[in-house]
Write a structure and sequence with these properties.
The protein has helices at residues 13-18, 66-77, 82-91, 108-116, 128-134; strands at 28-31, 34-37, 42-44, 98-102, 120-124. With 136 residues, the protein is of the alpha+beta class. It has one domain: Vaccinia Virus protein VP39 (Rossmann fold). It has a three-stranded antiparallel beta sheet, with no helix packed on it. It is globular. The relative contact order is 0.21.
Length: 136
Amino acid sequence: MSASGPGNDPLPPQVVEALRCSVCGDPIGLADRTLRCGNRHSFDLARQGYVNLLHARIPSGTADTADMVAARADFLASGAYRGLADELARVCAEADDLVIDAGAGTGYYLARVLDASGAAGLALDVSAVALRRAAR
């Protein structure tokens, strides 16, 4: 999960309010770059701007690798899907609270939506490599 990049507030309040502990389902709060629920389950924010809420290991071959993420970023930078990204940004321009991108990958589409709106963003992905890219 990624919500903001380095140098920004670690997690906007509306992101924290939307999250639940992945162990017990209780609401969580943010203190000292750590998300923690009332049952003391805790999840540290990485310095790159993301937090891993999973308490189980992702099966090998499930998450994107660094090479896959780099290839996707290069492809998206070519402009091949710019029209789709622009349309998403147009449709979501009225968003003013929280936009969640499940399977966010590099965060390409979420970034366009957030640039066009006043919303905070929450990127979800099983790939830590992808989330590090999205947090930029």
